[in-house]
Amino acid sequence: MIGLKKHWSGRAKLIVALALILAAVTAIASGLFGTTWAEKAVQTVLTPIRGGFASITRQIERYYNYVFGYESLEAKNDYLEKRIMEIEDQIRSADALERENAYLRELLNLSRQHDDYKFCDAYIVSWDSSSWKSTFTIGKGTNAGLETGMVAVTQYGQVVGMITEIGANWATVTTVMDTSLEISASLASSGHTGVVQGDYTSGERGKLRMIYLPSEAVLRNNDQVVTTGSTVYPKDLIIGYVIDAGYDETGVAKYALLEPAADFDTLEQIFIITDFVSEQNEANRATDTSEPTDASEPTGN
Which pTM does this prediction carry? Predict the structure, then answer.
């Protein structure tokens, strides 16, 4: 800015000097040759000077427009960036609501198929996974009516795991991927039963292993594996799908390698089955209603 100021100061002095000289020359010429010649002379001399002034004026205007135009553009840019952030937040919120609505629609379908199920939804807060362990924490606990031993599923009825620890407003869910969790299961196509647990012996991380299958069991790829039903796990919940099979170390029993039905990589929300009617409970109720009640015989005189 200092150099620019000096530049314009020197140029202004030159213009003033030229103007004075021109005024003197014009006065002398007017006396000697008349006004017309003087006017022409002035026009001849002033034309390039006026052009210079016009050029300087245009440069100053451009500089002014640039400075204030830049500030205006910067303000508009800040406003647009804020609007973009607001719109992105709205889109994220809309996406989250759409996902939740999709979850609830599927859960409604599951509830219609199993009208004895009662659910409590919960979001995953954090994960704790290793080669031997697979658990996560949810943001609900005993305050929401949850208890240890309750089963967690997806909105599609796919087994996720079981509540193994709990607090007032939190609970730990041990997933089917964990090696400590064992589930009685059967092949949906043949009915052959076995036990499903997290697979760690073959190094197939992220897979399940179904063991204790009889040697005559016929295993096919994509065979569905479901829960057999108990007082803990409702019957026919989907655990996974067969992707490989073979004989165990004894050479007598078979095993199957399973792809989990639940997609743990995208899991955000789960549903805890807080109550259901098991086959054993139905059998107990049927037994209770079929037994005759004691009644005292009336006495006569």
Answer: 0.61
